[in-house]
Write a structure and sequence with these properties.
207 residues; alpha+beta; Glutaredoxin; 2 domains; four-stranded mixed β-sheet; two-stranded antiparallel ribbon; 6 strands; 13% strand; binds FE2/S2 (inorganic) cluster
Amino acid sequence: MSDPHTDNPAAESAVKTEPGKNVENGHARYEAIPGHPHIKPPGVPQAQTKILSAESIAEIQRKMVRYPVRKSAVLPALTVAYRQIGYLNDEIYEELAQITEIPKLHIAEAASFYTLFPKKPRGKYLIMVCDNISCALCGADSLIKYLEEKLQIRLGETTPDNLFTLQSAECLAGCSAAPMMQVNHAYYENLTRKKIDELIETWRREG
Ligand code: FES
């Protein structure tokens, strides 16, 4: 029977040998499955998580197979958690540490480096206005002020209906179409107040 956390037929045949367990520097280290060093064999307790779903755990374990050095899987693991929850925090680092057996401190340090991993819940639409040099020269600061007034929030805040979070961002590599902003995964370029009005109206309508 296939291990529900691996979803990997190759691992299924590989795990029929008796799993071993060693202790290294005080941490449990499981005998590697040939070709799949990060998958725990059957009989070894799987991580108990309250936040991350079984699907996320399985996806993280599938991704880990690609990385011979365990620590290298930290960003893919953080990405899976972020996609499920929408932000990262200490409890999520704890669960990721259990699943990956990467030290929690290492996971938290990596996450802290990336502003694109939010550390608290945010609105449905994350508005990131670039305020770097090209955008600043084309009026980014005035557009940020306009958005603050329009949404009745300050930079870093979320509207009470949890629809919008407003942030500034460093250069997003859209300088040729400045001023610009990224909203979730899309770019909006050559911004004007009128364009912003239309976008906000559309997103409010869609809810
Ligand atoms: S300065 Fe704004 S995208 Fe580069």
